[in-house]
């Protein structure tokens, strides 16, 4: 059994048996106590005044000037903020909401600063305000459309352009392709630049010092490949081609001036001429002048027969021959009408006549 702290009234513990007499005794004690102080619980007249805040008095204490409970309550109430639209003063504080809270909970300065920090995400000082961001965008409210239009006029990303951009260039260099989308540089000389800036082929030929294809006016000693013998096309003919053609058409008789042949008997003849043209095997020409030769048919070699014995009733062809080593001009008689057997050292010949 337990007792109350002020009146030592018996009150059962959790395991005690409730005793009616204890309850009656407790009631008697409380009734006597209330009757003695002149108060009743319900304030019935004749049993003492009703207890209220207005007739509870006390000495003023702390910041409260009132000396009764009712006035003190009114005084304290006048110093507190109302729940509806309070006009707080000083430095009001409140619990800081968790970052990301989106309710009617009060927001503290710490909450606002954290929210702004999350918004700018550690942006640099020059871009951490909306005004700075707007200035960076050129204060263009249609920035996205503006950029789209500008990019539409740009060259798309291209492998060729990327390869060109990777080159290291310098003065007097020219870029050239080494493969598909691969490039290199080479020296561009002053002469190459003068050739590249020529407006047409005529100007380029002038820079090169070359003759045009159409009606070239060649100077000096122009050369060209010699055509094969017998060529009859628009190919350029060289001097060698002309000489060969002239020699071939002469059939061994190159030409002569004031030629005279006098046969004296069966074994002798004289040949005279102002000039006789002789050719060698490659059709080179030699001009023999003031020719005066005596032929002896009884001998073999220069000024005689080329080979064999003298035969009767046989045509013999008369030739003037020349030895370039000894510069000797002689005559020769042969049964061959085009190619006599020349004595040693003689390489030029010309057929001048025939006898029988």
Q: How many beta strands in the DSSP annotation?
A: 12
Helix segment count? 9
What are the secondary-structure elements, in order, as H or E? EEHHHHHHEEHHHEEEEEEEE
Strand content range: 15-25%
Mean pLDDT: 84
Give the distance, in angstroms, between the N- and C-terminal Cα atoms: 190 Å
The largest sheet is:
4 strands, antiparallel
Helix content: 25-40%
Low-confidence stretches: 43-48
Structural class: alpha+beta
Radius of gyration: 72 Å
Q: Outline, from the CA principal axes?
A: rod-shaped
Describe the structure.
With 356 residues, this protein is α+β, with helices and mostly antiparallel strands. The N and C termini lie far apart (190 Å). The model is unreliable at 43-48 (pLDDT under 50). Strands 5, 6, 7 and 8 form a 4-stranded antiparallel β-sheet that branches. A 4-stranded mixed β-sheet has the order 9-11-10-12, with no helix packed on it. A hairpin with a 6-residue loop joins β1 and β2. The protein contains 9 helices and 12 strands.
Task: List the defining traits of the structure above.
alpha+beta, 356 residues, 20% strand
What's the short story on this structure?
With 356 residues, this protein is α+β, with helices and mostly antiparallel strands. It has nine helices and twelve strands. Strands 5, 6, 7 and 8 form a four-stranded antiparallel beta sheet that branches. It has a four-stranded mixed beta sheet with strand order 9-11-10-12, with no helix packed on it. The protein has a two-stranded antiparallel sheet with strand order 1-2.
């Amino acid at each position: 059994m337990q007792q109350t702290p002020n009146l030592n009234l018996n009150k059962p513990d959790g395991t005690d048996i409730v005793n009616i007499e204890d309850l009656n005794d407790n009631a008697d004690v409380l009734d006597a106590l209330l009757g003695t102080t002149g108060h009743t619980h319900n304030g019935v007249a004749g049993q003492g005044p009703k207890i209220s805040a207005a007739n509870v008095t006390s000495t003023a204490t702390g910041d409260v000037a009132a000396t009764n409970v009712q006035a003190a309550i009114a005084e304290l109430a006048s110093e507190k903020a109302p729940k509806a639209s309070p006009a707080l003063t000083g430095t009001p504080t409140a619990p800081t909401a968790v970052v990301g809270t989106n309710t009617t909970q009060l927001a503290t300065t710490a909450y606002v600063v954290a929210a702004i920090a999350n918004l700018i995400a550690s942006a640099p000082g020059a871009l951490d305000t909306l005004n700075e961001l707007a200035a960076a965008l050129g204060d263009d409210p249609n920035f996205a459309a503006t950029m789209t239009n500008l990019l539409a006029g740009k060259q798309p990303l291209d492998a060729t352009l990327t390869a060109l951009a990777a080159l290291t260039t310098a003065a007097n260099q020219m870029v050239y392709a080494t493969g598909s989308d691969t490039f290199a540089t080479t020296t561009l000389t002053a002469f190459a630049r003068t050739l590249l800036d020529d407006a047409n082929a005529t100007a380029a030929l002038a820079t090169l010092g070359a003759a045009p294809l159409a009606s070239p006016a060649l100077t000096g000693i122009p050369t060209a490949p010699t055509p094969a013998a017998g060529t009859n096309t628009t190919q350029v003919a060289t001097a060698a081609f002309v000489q060969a053609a002239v020699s071939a058409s002469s059939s061994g008789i190159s030409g002569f001036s004031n030629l005279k042949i006098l046969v004296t008997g069966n074994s002798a003849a004289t040949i005279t001429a102002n000039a006789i043209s002789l050719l060698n095997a490659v059709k080179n020409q030699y001009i023999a002048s003031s020719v005066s030769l005596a032929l002896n048919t009884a001998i073999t070699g220069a000024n005689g027969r080329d080979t064999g014995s003298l035969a009767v009733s046989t045509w013999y062809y008369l030739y003037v021959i020349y030895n370039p080593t000894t510069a000797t001009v002689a005559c020769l008689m042969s049964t061959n009408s085009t190619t006599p057997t020349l004595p040693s050292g003689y390489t030029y010949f010309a057929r001048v006549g025939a006898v029988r």
